[in-house]
Amino acid sequence: MTPDESLLTWVPRLRRYARALAGNRDDADDLVQDTLERAWAKSALWRGVADMRSWLFSIMHNLHVDGVRRPRLATQPIDDDTPELAVAPTQSERLAVLDLQAALDQLPIEQKEIVLLVALEDMAYADVATTLGIPIGTVMSRLSRGRERLRALMDGRDSPVRLTVVK
Amino acid sequence: MNPITEAELHAFVDGQLTPERHREIEASLAQRPDEAQRVQSYRDQKRELRALFDPVLDEALPQRVLRAARPRAAWYSQRWVAGLLIALISAAAGWGLRGAWPSASPDNTLAGAGFAQRAAVAHAVYSAEQRRPVEVDAAHEDQLVTWLSKRMGAPMKPPHLQALGYALEGGRLLPGGQGPVAQFMYRDAAGRRLTLYVSNEIGAPASSASAARGGQSETAFRFAREGRLNVFYWVDGRFGYAISAEADRTALTEVSSEVYRQLAKGATVE
After folding, report:
1. In chain A, at which end, N or C, are there fewer CB atoms within 10 A of the end residue's CB?
2. What ipTM did this prediction achieve?
3. Whole-model pTM?
């Protein structure tokens, strides 16, 4: 497999994670694009990278954390009047989706990242620790707090999530 | 059996325990409905997160992502080049004309690098054109000047480079980062093209005005190259200039000096 093919194979998973992190398609793809460009800029290092996934997700993590800290360009959010861009889910799916997405967005970023890496990537805890550059004990405590908070939010306890769209 | 730690409970959810420990905890949970319910809720979370975001895996990749995933031969289409150019600027000895040595502010440097990148892309795109390299050709230079000056909001007269072997072919208007930019195209006797790219969206107008009048304009020539394409660029007041060609550095240096000289004389811009 040539290097560019190997990078391409990770793109769908990077996009999935980025979408969950960023919450919308444009910001997520910005993040993916930046990650890939950074990866190419550092392509001299690929030979020494034992775990490509961890390396790529680590780049994305750093960019995302930097991006969140930096003030962002004002963007126009898609509102209720915006025509559906994707296939419209059924009403009940839509409510559930908003519920989970909204709850996820209320997690602190450091908990959100770990909950997502474990859920979406099935990443081993040790790999999460490597990717995020934190001790494994920290991974476990943040995972625990993140999941519990998400559960509380989904159950409507602890600053309940309000659904913004009910149609 | 050892007591179950919180970490183990999560490792149980995620299947990251040894088979023995997994079975032990499974048995223990049967006796502890509260914990069992919590485990079930975490499993549901994972399942729902996958259901919510897995569809992304099947989406067609947007072009920009696809492009970013592939290595490119053309250096100037990559955003990291801006960073590279900044590195070049710090590393290479900038050279100034008429004793003016470079000391651009970081902001100008950044703007300049992005600008040089756009200039290089514009050169690559239009210098390859055989039939329509320009929108208005040199036979209608007066129209070209009027048109570009009007759109750029400043006098835009192409420098004359015949003495250096480059004849004006014409020019065109292009979109820059925020507004219009002008591109002048030249060619030598062998048909090799050279472009001058002029943008008025670089520096802050206030500082440039005073700098220009006070003669303190901090002009720094910068150079970038990749393969055969060389780019000289500089920022003068609020204007950025980039000269791109597949000429060697010495020849391009000569052209840049001449362009700068003509501009400084007020023959063209400002």
Report:
1. C
2. 0.78
3. 0.50
